[in-house]
Amino acid sequence: MHRKEAEQLRGRLPSLETYDFADRDALPAWALEELPKIARTTAEPDARLPEKAPDVRGWIRDFVVTSGIGDRFLVATGIEGYRWLEVRIRGVSWLDELVDALGEDLRLVSPDVLVAIYAEEYEYQAFLATPTHRRDADGAIV
């Protein structure tokens, strides 16, 4: 069941070259430390956008591109046993495809950058983490 879902995901991402699925241990150690911190309700986002703002996807795209993540990264899939998929951007509609396939809550990780976007009750929150841009245990930027 999960394998079929994982393979269907690949087919929904034609603007992304897809590589192998990876386990959590494929993520950099610093990113593994940061993921639970930015998931806390007390976490301080790097950027916010009101829920009813125009061009939410444009805002997400701009945040991801300016993060410095590059064109090749791991994306969280939410699929049991196929949690992360390595991708490379190769077309302009890559973000639309990711959001259509996975929803607006996104987690992207490269060797040097982690980006997370969360759709909260009244706003969108964007988080950036790098080996030198980290958060404390409560999610505050240090």
Care to describe what's here?
This protein has one domain (2-129). Helices cover 28% and strands 31% of the residues. The protein contains four helices and seven strands; from the N terminus they run αβαβαββαβββ. It has a seven-stranded antiparallel β-sheet with strand order 1-4-3-5-6-7-2. It is globular and about 40 Å long.
How do you describe this structure in short?
This protein is of the alpha+beta class and 142 residues long.
Q: Based on DSSP secondary structure assignment, what is the total number of beta strands?
A: 7
Share of helix, binned: 25-40%
Shape: globular
Task: Report the sheet with the most strands, covering strand number, pairing sense and barrel closure.
Answer: 7 strands, antiparallel
Number of helices: 4
Percent range for β-strand residues: 25-35%
Evaluate the radius of gyration: 15 Å
Mean pLDDT: 95
Biggest sheet strand order reads 1-4-3-5-6-7-2
How many domains? The number is 1
* Structural class based on helices, strands and sheet pairing: alpha+beta
Outline the low-pLDDT stretches: none
Distance between the termini: 42 Å
Query: What is the N-to-C order of secondary-structure elements (H for helix, E for strand)?
Result: HEHEHEEHEEE
Q: What's the structural blueprint in terms of helices and strands?
A:
Layout: H1 2-11, E1 16-22, H2 29-38, E2 47-50, H3 56-66, E3 72-79, E4 82-89, H4 94-102, E5 106-109, E6 114-119, E7 123-129
Antiparallel strand pairs: 1-4, 2-7, 3-4, 3-5, 5-6, 6-7
List keywords for this structure.
142 residues, alpha+beta, 7-stranded antiparallel sheet, 4 helices, 7 strands, globular
